[in-house]
Amino acid sequence: MKNFKLAAGLLLSVALPSGAFATDLEITHWWTSGGEAAAVAEFAKAFDATGDKWVDGAIAGGGDTARPVMISRITGGDPMAATQFNHGQQAMELVEAGLMLDLTDVATAEGWKDKVFPPSLLDACTLDGKIYCAPVNIHSPEWLWLNNKVYTDLGLPVPANWAEFVASAPQVEAAGKVPLALGNQPWQSNLAFGAITVGVGGLDLWKKVNVDKDMDAAAGPEMAAVFQAAADARKLAAKSTVQDWNQATNMVITGEAAGQIMGDWAQGEFAVAGKVAGTDYTCLPGLGMNAYLSTGGDAFYFPKLADPEKEAAQKRLAALLVSPEAQVAFNLKKGSLPIRGDIDMSTANDCMKKGLEILASGNLLPTGDMVWSPDVQTQAGDLMVEFWKTDMSAADAQAKWVEILKTGL
User: Do 261 and 383 reside in the same domain of the chain?
Assistant: First the structure.
């Protein structure tokens, strides 16, 4: 297993071709919040420094909004030069259709198979032995973010786990605060449910349901407890009326809300606001109940282009995205973990160090993207939206959820 070194010398990357090959490339992504924009600017700055030009094609609204636009352009004959997708199966149909550039020669030259960790990040975009993506980070969505001042002002200890958070909610609410911030974007309620599944149900239950596809476990009493916990969380978020995830994060930053279940990308928003991890806010991976990470995150794919000069620039960009310098600069701003373990992350904050320690321990889970088909994920996501927005009972939601999972067997 590779070790993540928090205080090691930064390795030199393979030299990239210089500005003699200057080429403009349009890159699409959905990183538009303050913290995200600061992070992606690091990639753009590094690429521009080579003499090539990063032409930014940010699409607001998050992945659910951006992905259909990206896919439509690629299949419709108007491809960008590079585009963000999450790790998993999101781009596999495009790869199978022959629309994505084979990056195996870049991966081989740069030694990605020896450097990218965990190996599942490359496996997720490998078809017939060929590599089609450049992974750039690891994002785990199952974190609980807390505003320390909300609790100290109430004379309460900052919760150390989900159970303590729920127990303190009545006092938080009595003080006029929203216990749990949750935006109205559909994926946020799905993310919250996934985090509660492991936080309350545990790692073994998650694996039984999602890896072993054990439908008895999905329909059993342990999952019933998870759905009831989600129903309880729904009440805690009842007065959260914002739309976007970063607006919900801002509720925590400003003290309007006590906490939020959100991925580690929330760190970027706290950083932009000048907040210090461990002092101003607390981060609890696995909701403080189960210290683990799911290996989600982002990768860039490169649609095939007719221009050989642009193809050469695409490969230069792919190599740069995985290079040590770009990995450090981007992930420190993004709040995500790097995809290689041989770089210096000694300046990481307390929250990122927690993630690095878990990653080094190997306490990892695949994401839903890697274990269920897009159709199952879509149906389950729709169910979660209905569940969080209505008074659907926990038992009814569980029964419908099991039927959805069975369609993916």
Answer: yes
Q: What pLDDT is attached to residue 15?
A: 41
Q: What's the pLDDT tens digit per position in 96-153? A: 999 999 999 999 999 999 999 989 899 999 999 999 999 999 998 889 999 999 999 9
> Is-contact 145 266, C-beta < 8 A?
yes
One domain, residues 181 and 323: no
Query: In the chain, how many domains are there?
Result: 2
Residue pair 251/242 in contact by the 8 Å Cβ criterion: yes
Nearest to 62 by CA among 70, 54, 72, 51: 70
Query: What is the C-alpha separation between 324 and 297, in angstroms, rounded?
Result: 17
> Cα separation of 360 and 193, whole Å?
26
CATH number at residue 208: 3.40.190.10
Contact 175, 51 (CB under 8 A): no
- How far CA 80 is from CA of 55, 70, 172, 245, in Å, comes to 10, 8, 47, 27
Burial class (CB in 10 A: 0-12, 13-18, 19+), 72: exposed
Its pTM stands at: 0.83
* DSSP code for 3: P
Q: Is the domain of 238 the same as that of 92?
A: no
- For the chain, the average pLDDT equals 91
- The answer to whether the CB of 183 falls within 8 A of the CB of 248 is yes
Q: CA–CA separation, 253 vs 272, rounded Å?
A: 11
Strand-pair category, 178-181 with 257-262? parallel
The yes-or-no verdict on residue 18 having pLDDT over 50 is no
Query: pLDDT of 192-244, one tens digit each?
Result: 999 999 899 998 999 999 999 999 999 999 999 999 999 999 999 999 999 99
Q: Using alpha carbons, select from 141, 23, 152, 35 the residue that is nearest to residue 87.
A: 141
Structural domain span for residue 400: 143-294+372-406
pLDDT for 20: 52
